[in-house]
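Whiteboard transcription, Tuesday session. T.W. wrote the structure tokens on the left side:
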């Protein structure tokens, strides 16, 4: 047999050798490599920490160059004054400071909001991770950059 045809058999043997299953009184106990269990547990922990879900936002600006950070924060602040019920976020995606607004579960919701703001803010719909429950109005959203050294 060639190595190519032998490979699936070796993989199956390795899989069977890595864990055993025993059935007693209707219960199945699977034992295997401890590292696999640790990886699964880490994956579960990370997923529990993530507070976002896939959705849509409207990006109203992307600034780069001199004063880009200040311009982004000024636009975000102005937008929040104009639309106090909407969330606005600043994301630094090197070398750009992007201003994104809204947490929309569907593209249709994002489109309706874009139609509402298009007279004053140019923008387009983007796929993004959104917060199903927006942060408190007085708190910085986790996406926001803290003001600091420039």
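and on the right, the sequence the group agreed on:
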């Amino acid at each position: 047999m060639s190595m190519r045809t032998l490979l699936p058999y070796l993989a199956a043997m390795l899989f069977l050798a890595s864990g055993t299953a025993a059935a007693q009184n209707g219960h199945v106990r699977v034992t295997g490599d401890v590292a696999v269990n640790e990886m699964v547990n880490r994956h579960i922990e990370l997923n529990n920490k993530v507070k976002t879900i896939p959705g849509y936002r409207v990006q109203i600006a992307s600034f780069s160059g001199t004063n880009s950070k200040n311009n982004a924060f000024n636009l975000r602040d102005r937008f929040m004054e104009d639309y106090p019920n909407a969330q606005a976020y600043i994301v630094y995606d090197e070398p750009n400071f992007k201003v994104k607004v809204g947490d929309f579960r569907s593209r249709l919701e994002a489109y309706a909001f874009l139609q509402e703001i298009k007279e004053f803010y140019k923008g387009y719909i983007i796929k993004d991770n959104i917060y199903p429950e927006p942060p408190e109005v007085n708190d910085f959203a986790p996406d926001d950059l803290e003001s600091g050294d420039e």
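Someone added at the bottom: Residues 135 and 141 are 6 Å apart (CA to CA).
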